[in-house]
């Protein structure tokens, strides 16, 4: 596997790991299972694609096709993380509520009927923008560190040691 893949996977792992302490600070609830779940702060999707794009930019340069492909792909991934994935989560919540209601009706429990005006589902769904930005910043940081750690130090390679 190439070093860019390692940097991206490391960034994804860091983002997933950071979700646990960030959630604890916000909610005062320790939930290690968040490491294996999607959503939340920071976005591991954004972290992964932005670390790879940063790594490619620093290793190969901005005017390369590698950088262009990674940048466009990364922007699409981050856009979808805010849109389609979030909408799926919202629909899941609605379906779960409907399932609980049907369970009560099935067991002949008294169900209080309330006429509610249906809410329109949010059109801009997915990760919250700050979660995507947080993931992107983490990814850029990881990409820069990955580049610095993996680049060949040309000054050291030119040193000749005489015995």
Describe this structure in words.
It comes from Robertmurraya siralis. Keywords: Membrane, Transmembrane, Transmembrane helix. This is Membrane protein. Pfam families: DUF212. 67% of the residues lie in helices and 0% in strands. It is an all-alpha fold. It has a domain of 106 residues. Helix 2 runs parallel beside helix 5. It is elongated and about 70 Å long. About 3% of the residues have low confidence.
Task: Provide tags for this entry.
DUF212; 163 residues; 6 helices; mainly alpha; membrane
List low-pLDDT spans: 121-125
**Mean of pLDDT:** 80
Structural class: mainly alpha
* Order of helical and strand elements: HHHHHH
Instruction: Give the total of beta strands.
Output: 0
Helix residue percentage: 55-70%
Amino- and carboxy-terminal Cα gap: 37 Å
CA radius of gyration: 22 Å
- Strand fraction: under 5%
Largest sheet: none
Distinct helical segment count: 6
What general outline do the C-alpha atoms trace?
elongated
Organism: Robertmurraya siralis
Protein name: Membrane protein
Transmembrane segments: 132-150
InterPro entries: DUF212
